[in-house]
């Protein structure tokens, strides 16, 4: 496969995913949801108290397969990054956990989701959050700047999972950790069999197998990798909790892309994004 072919395939996946979630953001903004029954949004994933503490649009835009906040074990003062932050529900919940001395970042490539997340942050009165535009294959954050990386059913949507794992390892500080919920396939399924069970934007066709997910994290130097099934979503496809740690003595991950800097810290709901 040529470089141009890979780039075309990546662009196609990004466009498909962006279109799907832009529509979801618009529905949430208008009071609708991605699911058939708005009353059950987040039920089983987030507690009633968590849902009640957030703007309705943040809950309606929740498209994940789990609750990474429940497994990330966040502490006051930590810096948290949510990959594919969508309407901002996990960023806002993280911001509450890390408190005023910590900070929660969200990265998303969809303008409509970013606008919705920024609106939700204003309504929630969150002052320790930042929403940044970018892909999770090329995070707009400097190396070793994050304590905890979380994600809610987004890694499976990435066009280049190897790049995602490399970026996670790059932005994590030594001793940092991940708490991810995602869809993974049982090792017995081939890529074609995964595609038969659902679409890419529907979080199925792009899912890695359990072994592929584990090998990908270990290949970038993460350790103590655990992948725990939480529930089945289709034949051979499961929602799983993924945890791992960056060793305290880990060497910096080589970054060959353009230098990245954090936006200047500002007061207000959206930090350096200028949305306020």
The coarse overall form would be globular
| Poorly predicted runs | 32-44, 262-276
The number of strands is: 7
Radius of gyration: 17 Å
- How would a crystallographer describe the biggest sheet? 7 strands, mixed
Helix and strand pattern: HHHHEHEHEEHEHHEE
Q: Give the number of helices.
A: 9
User: Quick check: average pLDDT?
Assistant: 77
Multimeric status of the protein: single chain
The secondary-structure class comes to: alpha/beta
Strand content: 15-25%
Helix amount, in percent? 25-40%
Order of strands across the main sheet = 3-2-1-4-5-7-6
How many angstroms does the end-to-end distance come to? 45 Å
Could you walk me through the main structural features you see in this protein, from its secondary elements to its overall organization?
The chain is an alpha/beta fold. Helices cover 33% and strands 21% of the residues. The chain contains nine helices and seven strands; from the N terminus they run H-H-H-H-E-H-E-H-E-E-H-E-H-H-E-E. A seven-stranded mixed β-sheet has the order 3-2-1-4-5-7-6, sandwiched between helices. Strand 1, helix 5 and strand 2 form a beta-alpha-beta unit. Helix 1 packs across helix 6. The radius of gyration is 17 Å and the shape is globular.
